[in-house]
Structure formats: C-alpha cells, structure tokens
C-alpha cells in the first residue's frame, strides 16, 4: 500500500473524531453493565456500544420539505424521460408525412450517436451546477436558475418540432441547440436536487427510541438517508412513466405535442420550487471551497502525502505553505470525499449498460412485431419494475435483514447492482438471437419482405418478450444507482455535497463516452455480440468492485459519523482571506 493510500485508510477511524472516543463507554463498562445500560439509557440519547449492536436499527419518516423536493424531481424526470425517450425515433426515422414516424432521418447509428451524446452532455454539466451552488448561489438558487435555462431549451425543441418547422429544415439545428441548452439545465439541477432532498433531514447522530409497542430501537440517520434516496428514486421513476403517454402522442399527433406536454409539466415543477421556498432547509454557499479543494489536491500530489495540505503538517515538516486558507478538518473532509470518488471509478461500465434501455433497446423493440405497441413504449417496464420493487425492498426485504442483524451495506448493494445489470445484457443478447432466428428477415430486420402497406413490421417475435431485460435494468438501478446517490451524499463533506454528487454523475458521462465509442458496433448482426460483451464486463466489474472495496463496509459508521458535530447550517471550514489578514 502506498503512503497516500495508507494515509486515507489509516486516518478514517480517527476521522470519527475524539467524539467517538469520548462518548463511547469503556469495554469494561459495556460488558460489565450491559443489561443495566439497556434499561437506563433515556429516549433521545445516543445508544452505547452494546445497544448499538443488539437493538434493531430503524429509519425515520421524511419531513414535508423532502417530499416537496421529491415532487420537483418527479416533474423534472417526467420531462426528461418523456422527451428523451422519443429521441431515438425522432432522429433515426425520416419525415414521411405520417405523424410520429420520424423527423430527421439520420438512421440507427446517427440516432444512437446523438442520443448518446445527449446523455454524455447531461452528465458533464452537473460540474457547472455544483460549482455555482457550492461556491456562489447555494443549491436552491442554483436550481431556480437552471430551471429557467431548461425551459428555454424545451421551448426551442417544441417550436422546431412542429410540422412546418421540420418541413422547412429547422429540425436538426433546433434539435442540437435544444439538447445543448436542456443538457445544461438538467445538469445544473441534477447535481443539486439530490443533496437538497437529504439536506431536509437534520438528525446527525443515532438515538434511542421506544416504539408504541414498547420495543426499544435505534434511530439510525444512515438508514433514513437510505430511505430518502429510495423514495427520491421512486419519484424519479414515477415521473419517467411519462413514456406511457408520449409515445402515443408522438404516433397519433406528432412529436411536438409530446414535447409540449413535457414543457408544461416542467413549468409546474418550476412553480413548485418557487412557491415552496419557505419550507426548504437551505444551506448557504461555502465560498471558494471547490477551488481550494483542487489546490489542496495539488499539494497532496506534489508531496505524495494525503496530509501535506494540512497547516499542522506544513508547520511540523518545514513546509513553505504557511498561509493556507483552510484548516486541518477541511483536509480530513476532502480525504473522505476522495474515498467516495474512488468508489465511483467503476461506475462507467454500469452506465454503458444502463444507457442501452433508451437507445439500442428501443431499436431492438422496433425489430419485433409490436401488435399495436409503439417500440419506445417498452421503456416503461424499467420504471414500473422500480416502482414495484422499491416498496418490497423498503417494507419487507431490508427490515427482515435488519431483524436478522444483517447489515446490507452500500458497497455490497452496488456490487449486486452491477451483477444484476449483467443479467439484463445477457437477456438482451438472447432476445437479439431470437430476432435473427425468426423470419421473414432473419439477421436483416425490417427488410422489404416484412413490409405491409409500405411499413416494415419486424420479425415474427412478440415485442413483449423484451420485458425481462427492462426489469433486470430496473432492479439493478435500485441497488447500484440509489446506493451511489446515497454514498455520494453521506461521504461528501457538508461544504462539498453538490460537487461530490457531480463527480458521481460525471461517471455517467464517461459511460456515455464509452457507449459512443461502441456506436460503430450498433448494427445487425454485430449488436448481439456487443450485448454479450457488456454482460461479461458488467459481471466482472461487480466481482472486482466487491473484492477491492468490501473493507469500506466496515468503515461505514465511522465515515458517516464525521458530520455528527455539524450544525444544521454548517459553519464553513475554509478560513476567509479577511480572517487570515486579521
């Protein structure tokens, strides 16, 4: 292990602070008075070590403000998925005079390339939103600002998708301008809305509580954050059910009508953000925290020591940097954030798999007989599976595991998510093989032999057979994506919540870049082997991920305890220039 790695690993137990030592009873006291301790600790106070191990851990209910943030996210995701879920058809198919058949006529690879670029752009821009929020405006004002940007992009998309605009050649230029602006808007919102919902929950420490049935339990803030992000992700997927409506609007009226619905829904979400202002817990920006973080990282690199940016280290080791604008605690927080960012390094492969459901899966569905079902409607089985499985996991599976004293930690959940995603790809490869094995076109789907009244019908495979692939993707999201959001929030220091969240989202952009590189393989019959390759890659990544990071499960409580002393509105850890001058 390198000195740098040793620094970050060895410091973690100490990062729990002197508080952990001061507040925990001695081993002799715990084991000598365990029965007495269990009966005398008052409700509302922290559990001792014996209680922490023996009592059941539970989560609290969400405050009203958290539900408001969840509704805002629901509206944004309604817009995002209802709109972007149509992009594959909008770009791939030509404008042939019939409603909803297509618009830009750029073919399969052109459509996959542009939709993948849109996904890439949407997950690069959160860095901009994070910097604006953490350094200048705060999360709430940044969300309001980027809502305005988002609305402008939606308006351009609606106006350039009306039949007259498409016939006069405004479609491609309008589409590119719209996705650039919408991507900027959604990025600014995504990096801030996820930490904002968790900010609404104020408890930092565990506490004893007696239930109405007389059972003594431990209120665990980490479990409440897990519940918050489960509900948050549920709201995301309820919103994404907009794809139950927009494909039919695309087919029966035109793309413009579906985009207009998305614009109206987003306007409702923006209104909720503005009118609900007085209910939110809003934390102020923390000054130059992002730029200072990069400066500290540079000092770590050139000194090959994780503690080198600390003022005390500089003083003890004869360092030349004696006027640093931060304290030792800021560097401890930054080191914890680096642990989270290191965990995120494996996510790009997962996002390549995840991105298939809105691109190549749509094309695959179009190669089968739809029996009246639009090919882009099948995407709804992803959010439907999430909406079904989240309550089952939250109300049944996870409580049973806790009663059995099995701690299903984030690292384990993320690894399982990667493995379940590999099942989705393997199933997609099997479906593709079935398509190529069926007539009338075999490995050249949508050939002239399948046309009826000038419209290709696909090979003789029922479109519903694709459903399990979406179910596997949805189930993998609950483990991998929800746990990633949770990990990004709980491991980020208070001053860098949005920035660490943007680092997590950036892995999606890297995944989109990899998917963009795979675009040349998105043709028949090579795409079946691309699905096989992704299945193998995702499975191996899940195993390797667990092997490398499983030790972090044991450090989970210590890392989460770092914020226990921070007040509801944290005092910036960075020392201002004015204070330094004094």
TrEMBL record:
<keyword id="KW-1133">Transmembrane helix</keyword>
<protein>
    <submittedName>
        <fullName>POT family-domain-containing protein</fullName>
    </submittedName>
</protein>
<feature type="transmembrane region" description="Helical">
    <location>
        <begin position="469"/>
        <end position="490"/>
    </location>
</feature>
<comment type="similarity">
    <text>Belongs to the major facilitator superfamily. Proton-dependent oligopeptide transporter (POT/PTR) (TC 2.A.17) family.</text>
</comment>
<feature type="transmembrane region" description="Helical">
    <location>
        <begin position="143"/>
        <end position="166"/>
    </location>
</feature>
<feature type="transmembrane region" description="Helical">
    <location>
        <begin position="529"/>
        <end position="549"/>
    </location>
</feature>
<feature type="transmembrane region" description="Helical">
    <location>
        <begin position="413"/>
        <end position="436"/>
    </location>
</feature>
<keyword id="KW-0812">Transmembrane</keyword>
<feature type="region of interest" description="Disordered">
    <location>
        <begin position="32"/>
        <end position="53"/>
    </location>
</feature>
<feature type="transmembrane region" description="Helical">
    <location>
        <begin position="256"/>
        <end position="276"/>
    </location>
</feature>
<feature type="transmembrane region" description="Helical">
    <location>
        <begin position="502"/>
        <end position="523"/>
    </location>
</feature>
<feature type="transmembrane region" description="Helical">
    <location>
        <begin position="172"/>
        <end position="197"/>
    </location>
</feature>
<dbReference type="InterPro" id="IPR000109">
    <property type="entry name" value="POT_fam"/>
</dbReference>
<dbReference type="Pfam" id="PF00854">
    <property type="entry name" value="PTR2"/>
</dbReference>
<feature type="transmembrane region" description="Helical">
    <location>
        <begin position="384"/>
        <end position="401"/>
    </location>
</feature>
<feature type="transmembrane region" description="Helical">
    <location>
        <begin position="337"/>
        <end position="354"/>
    </location>
</feature>
<dbReference type="InterPro" id="IPR036259">
    <property type="entry name" value="MFS_trans_sf"/>
</dbReference>
<keyword id="KW-0472">Membrane</keyword>
